[in-house]
Amino acid sequence: MFKWTFGIISSSTLIIFFLVFSSEQGNATGSEENPFLTGDERNNIKIFSDVSPSVVYVTNTQVVRQRFSFNAMEVPRGSGTGFVWDNNGLIVTNYHVIYGAHKVLITLHDGQTYEAENVGVAPEKDIALLKIDAPSSALQPIIVGDSSNLAVGRKVLAIGNPFELDTTLTVGVVSALGREIKSLDNRTIKNVIQTDAAINPGNSGGPLLDSRGQLIGVNTSIISPTGANAGIGFAIPVNTVKLIVPQLLAHGRLYRPILGIEVLPEYWARRFRVKGVAIMSVQDSLPAGRAGMVGIREDRRRNIQLGDVIIAVNDEPVINEDTLLSLLEKYQPGDEVNVTTMKDEKIHNYNLRLAEPEN
């Protein structure tokens, strides 16, 4: 608010006042020249300016039939965020963002929209890899960082499209490391980053960045009774994503070695009070069968008896199928492992060479 005082003002004084007033107004609007910006604010502005062209809007559509005419029509099912992985048009997002989609549309920073091809998905890690046929000039790949040197308290920034609001920035810190969350298929995702940077519906699949503007995680979920941000969000570490993307590109799924077993269903495992992973059957031509492991059997009275129950792999305990699969993800086909089982109330050890997954 200005208070005007009437009096005689010389022309030179009036000119000086005009120049000073104009300079202050310019500094208030020019972010780079504004002397009142802190170093942290300048950092936020620069990162958002540099990285937002790499962030994309993901729309998931499905086909439904009209109630009375039964005519099929395509309607939006949900939306989320993703980011450009490379100049070939690869886009990374969350699996749950595209789950159940009939068609996935990607809108780039320039407003152009492309239909995406599903290259591969890893539901157990909540990661999906898409591809769009866009000119390389329209694509700005994100700079991939390293999540191994993160520490609690480090600044992080999230860019996404919450509630269909285009390209929104939130800022926070790493609240905790090594968290575990459940994926859509009820698998445990380990070593997850926890942050207090606001992650709302629509932010899923967007990048979590460090103070250099480098990708350190993929925002995936929140803990909230209302579905809105409550200060606890999670992101898949970028080092996990760097391992997954080549597998999805080559195989369309995670390339996990196998033992060659069929696991006893969870319902029956609970009835038998199994501690570990009970084998229902083995394939003779695959590692478990060749090593002599056996599944469930019937005795002479037609009572069901358990065969081998896996309790450890290379001395790492196996609690359930989820932990067994997580342990196998550490190895490659051809690696030799020691599998410890319980059978007939005795401990058994089997040395076997892991096989390639079947198509």
From TrEMBL:
The keyword DNA repair does not apply. GO terms for molecular function: serine-type endopeptidase activity. InterPro entries: Chloro_Bact_Ser_Proteases, PDZ, PDZ_sf, Peptidase_S1_PA, Peptidase_S1_PA_chymotrypsin, Peptidase_S1C. Gene3D superfamilies: 2.30.42.10, Trypsin-like serine proteases. Keywords: Hydrolase, Protease, Serine protease. GO terms for biological process: proteolysis. Residues 259-353 form the PDZ domain. Transmembrane segments: none annotated. It holds the Pfam family Trypsin_2. Belongs to the peptidase S1C family. This is Trypsin-like serine protease. It comes from OM182 bacterium.
